[in-house]
From TrEMBL:
Gene3D superfamilies: DsbB-like (1.20.1550.10)
Source organism superkingdom: Bacteria
Organism: Candidatus Liberibacter solanacearum
Gene Ontology CC terms: membrane
A GO term for molecular function: protein-disulfide reductase activity
GO biological process: protein folding
Keywords noted in UniProt: Membrane, Transmembrane, Transmembrane helix
Keyword Transmembrane helix attributed: yes
Subcellular location: Membrane
Listed transmembrane segments: 12-30, 75-98, 141-167
Listed SUPFAM superfamilies: DsbB-like (SSF158442)
InterPro entries reported for this sequence: DiS_bond_form_DsbB/BdbC (IPR003752), DsbB-like_sf (IPR023380), Uncharacterised_DsbB (IPR024199)
Protein name: Periplasmic thiol:disulfide oxidoreductase DsbB, required for DsbA reoxidation
Length: 180
């Protein structure tokens, strides 16, 4: 279904759609954090980073697709976006597994850099006063009955598939363009 829908679009429009979707997702999670007041856990922050990287790559792909000679760069950028979003899908699956108590959170969802700096009891108490640790297995916000981590599985996988299809269209465009 997605492939037939995307086959009717030109490659430049697909890349603009990818860029717009990623920008919308970034705006959404920043709004949820800063306006809604929902503090992200460590795993949520790990799930957000790939969107920043992919947004920059999508902007670069948007510029490179306009030059026919840069089809390899466009293909590489779109494949990289697809792989990074697939990686984000895996991270989100792990996060949902922690939320559903499939995996233990203390083995996966910890920020060791803050814990290693604690040397004595006084440091521990001051650390506990300054910082409230958000637990990864406690979901505070559900949208249509699904947690945000579950929605991230859907969105990142969808972006991975769309980027892969766009990369395929880029390579087929380059083959057809240079055989003539």
């Amino acid at each position: 279904m997605i492939k037939s829908l995307l086959s009717k679009l030109e490659n430049i429009h697909i890349i603009r759609i990818i860029t717009t979707i990623i920008a919308g997702i970034i705006i959404s999670f920043l709004t949820i954090q800063h306006v809604g007041g929902y503090a992200p856990c460590d795993f949520c922050l790990r799930e957000q980073r790939p969107y920043y990287y992919c947004f920059l790559m999508a902007i670069a792909a948007n510029f490179s697709v306009q030059n026919n000679r840069l089809y390899r760069a466009t293909f590489f950028l779109l494949m990289t976006i697809s792989l990074v979003m697939l990686y984000d899908t895996v991270i989100s699956i792990i996060h949902v597994g922690i939320e559903w108590n499939i995996w233990r959170e203390n083995t996966i969802c910890t920020n060791d850099s803050k814990i290693e700096s604690i040397e004595n009891t006084i440091d521990l108490l001051t650390h506990m006063e300054r910082e409230y640790i958000i637990r990864c297995n406690q979901t505070k916000l559900y949208i249509l009955g699904l947690s945000l981590a579950f929605w991230n599985i859907i969105l990142s996988f969808m972006l991975s598939v769309i980027s892969y299809i766009a990369a395929g269209k880029t390579s087929s465009f380059s083959d057809n363009n240079f055989k003539k």
